[in-house]
Design brief:
The protein has 19 helices and 20 strands.
Length: 622
């Protein structure tokens, strides 16, 4: 081989080496790939453990059918020692309960697994009970820390072991999971402040770096809760029971209620997960952030005949750096869905409360919620009355404009009747409309001015429709015949009736009925104020009377507080219209319009173009 060939091969080798170096993975990519491999290893190990457990269960089943000679205690002990090794001392103990309590919370912690087993809210009660409300009870909550040990040959769970009580007071408990190795142990701390609904917690690891598998950089913390029924009507609770979650870079998200779904959280590390019920929630969060790798949230619905509404579950990653001393801090919130309380935590936890979409939400945030909390010492029925008065005062200019628009249309009825007689029923509708619009312009009347103000009131109605059924301020607050303004009132429950139950319900809500009657009367009054509009659009008249019927079917099963608000809004509108009519007579309105019709008509350039286009279309038809 000559020198040129050797030089060429050398250059080729050099180029290949440079290309391999530049195209190779970066250090960050190598670390990420290692993390993914470790996660896959952990998943495979879990699958292996699951398979092993299934095989063990099958062996037990076979043993029950074909019993083998009884195993001696020494063999059992040796097998258990081989399985649990350094954790063997924690395999046996007493299941003792530690109680933490302040004015708002009572938290019961079990030394078996170190879990928060029961939580009671002292200031709240279930319907018909005076006992503190159980947010969740024994056997309905499971907390579990999983870790891989001894070079991935074992996977342990904290629920398998008994913790020792190191410290215990009314506000603090320290539990320790001891091992056979001196100076190697894991600790759980729970601290309950003197006031409030949050519980501070932490996992501490001392001397565990030689036991926990070296290439695993995270542990897995799992939490499951069965949602108990807390309210009068279970169906309403099912409609809103869900799981909310938030990562460190995006706004809160949630699983759709009434569905069974499992979601992985892959976008970023997890800030908090909230198990939300209609009026209460159980939330876990960490300022350090839970690792996104392997983190999931899950919601599983329960059958109608089940005592629980649904099962909420989350799996969250906890970082582990194989140091001699490590600690991971996190906190719980166990309490009401109370907007100002959740807002104080400054992590968008208040987003679990439905305040309405976009701009509608500010009506609740800036008006309704502050008013409810400022006047919480009053009966909430009267607070809703005060809210309605405030809203009606703020909207009075719109109500006045709506009334004046209808009155102007009403006093022009003789002129519109002449137009109808002039054109007859077979006239060209476009030409008739042009003549009518010319009359309105000459009189200074805008036929749309009565519709636009009404549309401006819809944001308030939509905002209240979202918030009132979820307002903790209305829960179990009686008013008149209603026992609870947060749900529907019933003056007669007639039971199961085909189709009626589906469309209307199995009861009659008096507040909804009053709202329906007042809406029909209001619709009738509006029809009399603007009869010419009804003649022009007969289909609209039907819809005006049909919509209250639809609304009745919805509101019969909705919060009584909302029906009470709509009823009050209608009644106050009646009063406003009578007051305006007292001060502004039809005669004075007629005189003003006649004065306008004597003035020369001003036509804008845009209006001229519209009229020209209309004339051109008319000529084309000829």
């Amino acid at each position: 081989m000559d020198k040129k060939s050797l030089l060429g091969l050398g250059l080729i080798a050099l180029i290949m080496g440079v290309w391999l170096y530049l195209s190779g993975p970066s250090e960050a990519q190598i670390k990420q790939a290692k993390k993914q491999r470790d996660s896959m290893d952990l998943v495979e190990r879990k699958a292996f453990e699951k398979q092993r457990q299934e095989q063990a269960n099958k062996a037990i089943s076979n043993a029950s059918l074909n019993p083998l000679p009884l195993e001696s205690d020494s063999v059992k002990n040796n097998r258990e020692r081989e399985q649990y090794r350094d954790f063997l001392p924690a395999r046996h103990g007493l299941d003792t309960h530690c109680v933490l309590e302040n004015q708002q919370l009572k938290v019961i912690i079990s030394t078996k697994g170190g879990i928060i087993q029961q939580v009671y809210l002292s200031s709240y009660h279930r319907p018909g009970s005076k006992q503190p409300l159980p947010l969740f009870i024994a056997d309905s909550s499971q907390m579990n820390l999983q870790w891989s040990a001894y070079n991935s040959t074992r996977i342990f769970e904290s629920a398998e072991f008994y913790f020792k009580i190191i410290e215990h007071s009314k506000s603090h408990v320290k539990l320790r999971l001891e091992t056979a190795r001196k100076g190697s142990f894991m600790e759980l701390n729970y601290r309950l402040p003197d006031q409030g609904f949050n519980v501070e917690s932490s996992w501490s690891f001392t001397g565990m770096q030689s036991i926990i598998t070296e290439n695993v950089d995270q542990l897995q913390w799992n939490w499951s809760v069965l949602y108990p029924s807390q309210e009068l009507h279970k169906s309403k609770e099912r409609e809103v029971a869900t799981v909310y979650f938030k990562n460190t870079v995006e706004d809160p998200d949630n699983i759709n209620p009434m569905t069974s779904e499992r979601q992985e959280i892959q976008e970023a590390d997890v800030e908090w997960v909230s198990f939300k019920q209609q009026f209460f929630n159980a939330t876990v969060w960490s300022k350090q952030g839970f690792l996104k790798s392997g983190s999931v949230v899950e919601l599983q619905q329960r059958p109608e005949n089940h005592t629980a509404l649904a099962r909420a579950h989350t799996e969250l990653g906890i970082p582990y750096r194989h140091q001699a001393q490590e600690q991971f801090k996190y906190q719980f919130y166990f309490g009401p869905n109370h907007y100002p309380t959740l807002q104080q935590y400054n992590m968008q936890l208040e987003a679990i409360i439905p305040t309405g979409w976009s701009i509608f939400s500010y009506i609740n945030k800036w008006l309704v919620i502050p008013l409810f909390n400022a006047l919480d010492s009053l009966n909430m029925g009267w607070v809703i009355l005060i809210l309605t008065l405030i809203v009606k005062v703020l909207l009075f200019p719109i109500a006045y404009k709506t009334y004046m628009s209808g009155a102007k249309m009403r006093v022009l009825k003789p002129e519109t009747d002449q137009l109808n007689a002039k054109f007859g029923s077979n006239a060209d509708p476009l030409k008739k409309q042009q003549e009518q619009m010319a009359l309105y312009r000459k009189a200074g009347v805008n036929p749309l001015s009565g519709c636009i103000p009404l549309l401006l009131q819809f944001p308030i109605l939509i905002a209240l429709f979202n918030f009132v059924p979820a307002a903790i301020e209305l829960r179990q607050k009686p008013f008149l015949w209603a026992e609870d303004l947060s749900t529907y009132d019933s003056i007669w429950t007639f039971g199961e009736l085909p189709f009626i139950n589906w469309a209307y319900g199995d009861h009659i809500s008096l507040f909804a009925a009053l709202m329906f009657v007042s809406t029909i009367v209001y619709t009738y009054m509006n029809s009399n104020m603007m009869p010419q509009q009804n003649n022009q659009m007969p289909g609209m008249k039907f819809m005006m009377y049909f919509m209250p019927v639809i609304f009745l079917a919805v509101m019969n099963k909705y919060a009584a507080g909302l029906s009470w608000y709509y009823f009050l809004a209608n009644m106050i509108t009646f009063g406003q219209n009578y007051v305006i009519k007292w001060f502004v007579s039809d005669a004075s309105i007629r005189a003003k319009l006649e004065e306008n019709m004597k003035k020369p008509l001003k036509v804008s350039g845009f209006q001229k173009r519209l009229e020209e286009m209309a004339r051109q279309r008319q000529q084309l038809k000829k």
